[in-house]
Design a protein that fits this description.
two-stranded antiparallel sheet, Argininosuccinate lyase, Fumarase C, Chain A, domain 2, binds arginine, single chain, 19 helices, Fumarase C, Chain B, domain 1, 3 domains, Fumarate_lyase_N, elongated, Fumarate_lyase_CS, arginine biosynthesis, mainly alpha, 6 strands, lyase, two-stranded parallel sheet, Ribonucleotide Reductase Protein R1, domain 1
Length: about 450
Amino acid sequence: MGTLWGGRFQEEASELMQSFNESFSLDKRLWYEDITASIAHITMLGDCEIISKEESELLQQELTKLCEAIGQDPSLLTGNYEDIHSFVEAKMIEACGDAGKKMHTARSRNDQVAVDMKLYVKKSLTELSELAQQMIKVFGAKGEEMADVLMPAYTHLQRAQIVPFSYVLDAYAAMFERDVKKIDQAIELMDESPLGAGALAGTTYEINRQQTASLLGFAGVQHNTLDSVSNRDFIIDALHCCSSLMMHMSRFAEDFIIYSSQEFNFVELSDHFSTGSSMMPQKKNPDALELIRGKAAKVISLLNAMYGTMKGLPLSYNKDMQEDKAIYFEALDTTTACVKILTAVTEELKVNEDRLKETIHEGFLNATELADYLVRKGLPFREAHEIVGEMVVYALDKKTQLHELKLEEMKQFSAAIQEDVYTALHPDTILQQGIKKDMLHSHVKSV
Ligand code: ARG
């Protein structure tokens, strides 16, 4: 392996150490960012007359060529290199000779890897946000499609009150919307270029950090150079965005795994996203959703792994930080796959409207509204609550529902109850009075 530090050493690292130390197999994924950041760096070196204009232009040309070549044929990213930075530099020395050897002037792999990762994280978070917004749209469209369908909602997984089916989707859309905002905030916070920090203490050359920052599309420069090469907060923030998305998707998965069981039978998942059993012929299992729930645990653990990596590190760069790539790529790929799958699962979700129509008349979902009715008739709420509780016991005993009791039966509990109670207990009335416009997240309109 051609290393970047031969002079100080009399012997090569053992093969065991070389393969233990290498990160090329993973960080080759940063090829575009490494080449782009190198182009910005040598452009600046030329403009600041640290290398000649000709050398700068030659390197810019060759780096652009390399970028195009890899774009067309990613299998070019191969060979016995320590990391992507060594690979690109070696290719430039091959192509430009001495000019190639000047590319690393006023730069260290410490600021180089930090800038590469920042560019990659910014780009990948933006793509993840676009996918999440796509998913929110699909939730909205499914909500529109199911606008008239009502269902029981739960606390403690016990029947609580009636809501429109689309209101459940609206709740999840609101969570995902916050995740999209988290991504925007994370990108804004990381939008400073570490390039020019050198190994840790800047460089003796008169470089122009502002120029490389602008060329790379950063809002500004990360000024303290010790901080620039030490900082992996931005990866932790990105992992937090992934974890939050995964946690919300996992809760959705849990809800819909329950809803798709025979016992609930509220929804049916498309065959495209279910699997069968090798032994039990009748089975249709919600594997896509279960995998989302399972993978959420992994992504959240990866956030924890990154915190663990960073919490004890002294200033500034330490090799432990190389692990950030394995952690981030795994979390990003998992989250991206889950957002895509959940979007498709929701798009193809079948809602069992007949079953839902039955369920909203069972389980005392209108008990709270009956108490509210009594309050409107002049009773204090606590008293009304007590009375309705007793009515529930009575109805349970008679194996019936509150709205199925006769008026005379109801009147035994409170003389305030009149004929209009039946309208008050009807699902349509409850919904009109219950879910107000300002209780909707804007994306699912027709609840
Ligand atoms: N492969 C290294 C990483 O990902 C690049 C930086 C190496 N820097 C160093 N001083 N050894 O962290």
